[in-house]
Every structure is written in C-alpha cells, then in structure tokens.
C-alpha cells in the first residue's frame, strides 16, 4: 500500500491520530483534516513527510466539495477515506435544544455524507477505493443523555450498508468500525467523573478493560487493506465484547 493516499477526518487527536499513525507506519501518505491548525501542524511535523493536513471544521458542509477538489488536484487520487471526526453532547433528553441536536447531526452525519460523496467521485474516476466510517456503541444499544450522538451514529451505520451495496459493484468497499469504550482523554474524563457509568461499562465488558486507540487503528487499517478485499458493508465492533456483554 506504499502508493496509497488516505484522508482521516479528525486525524490529529484521539482515535484519528492513532489511525493516522498506523497508516503512516505502513507507508501510506495521510492527510489529516481538522479544525485546529496549531495541533495539526505539530502532529504533521512530528509524523514526518508522509503526513500532511488541511484545516476544515466538518460542520462547514458547504466547504467540503472545494476541499476535496483541492486534495484531488494536489495528489491526483484518494484511495482511503476514514470518517472519524465527531462531536458529542451529554445532556438530559428534554434539555437538548433543536440547535444542539442539529449541530451534532450536522458534524457527525451530514458532513460524512458530503465528504463521502465527493471522495467517491474521485475514487470512481480512479477505479476504486475504501471508505471506513467510525460509529459507536451508542448505535448498538440505548445510552442515556446522548440522543443526538446516538441518532447520528445510528445513521452512519445505515448509510454504511446503503453505500456498500451501491458502491461495491463499482470497486469501492465501504465498512464501519464501532468502537467500544476506548481509553482516550475524552472518555477517561467522562468516565472518571461518573463512577456509576464507569462501573456499568466495566461490568458488561467481558474482557474487563478499556480498549486502546491502537485497537481501533488496527481494525481500520485491516479494513482498508487487501487483506479485507472481500469484506464490505460490515459493522465491526471493537469493544472487548461490550456489545454482547451481560
């Protein structure tokens, strides 16, 4: 995969950064998309010549087509797209405003549709590619206080299947990784501030521990590789068994 070009949204932090690092370790030129240029610049300098970045807030849906056209003009191809960027909102259902709900859906679902559509046009012109969406356990069972996030991630999984059926005959595989509870700064802060939720998470995870960002990166890399060339339309839980735990 040494000649591949990958895009990772939210690629300079958390799970996205782990995915970026995994691709670069395999010789894949990786373009991080994020909203904070300072962080993008730091990570690009640290990761070397195979890493570059574009600044874009993914809630700017109207700006996505021009961004993808710019990347295509620069690199002539896009082989892998990882739709990882997302935001969350933890709030009582009755307290969530229309604007708050729409903001989460805009970033986590609508922008995924738009960037996938634009990248697909490029992939079709070049004869194929891989798209990997990042979902969540919130799409697999009810989790309180995250209604907008749940709605968006459930939409991601449905869109993955529809895209796979339509695009796979044209050489574009579409899959989805559904992380369980992964040890990141954001998740650690959320669980440490809510001991009851943390106990519930751990008690229903058969492996008895949180995952690592590397675990998600490995799954994404596999689905983008030739090792998964006959896999499309799957929702792959990487969760230590949480989704089937009792």
From TrEMBL:
Extent of the signal sequence: none
UniProt keywords, alphabetically: Oxidoreductase
Q: InterPro entries in the record, alphabetically?
A: NAD(P)-bd_dom_sf, Sc_DH/Rdtase_CS, SDR_fam
* Stored Pfam families: adh_short_C2 (PF13561)
Q: Does the keyword Ribonucleoprotein apply?
A: no
Q: Does the keyword Kinase apply?
A: no
Q: What is this protein called?
A: NAD(P)-dependent dehydrogenase (Short-subunit alcohol dehydrogenase family)
Origin superkingdom: Bacteria
Q: Which PANTHER family match?
A: OXIDOREDUCTASE, SHORT-CHAIN DEHYDROGENASE/REDUCTASE FAMILY (AFU_ORTHOLOGUE AFUA_5G02870), SHORT-CHAIN DEHYDROGENASE_REDUCTASE FAMILY PROTEIN
- For this UniProt entry, which segments traverse the membrane? none
Membership in a protein family: Belongs to the short-chain dehydrogenases/reductases (SDR) family.
Q: Which GO terms describe its molecular function?
A: oxidoreductase activity
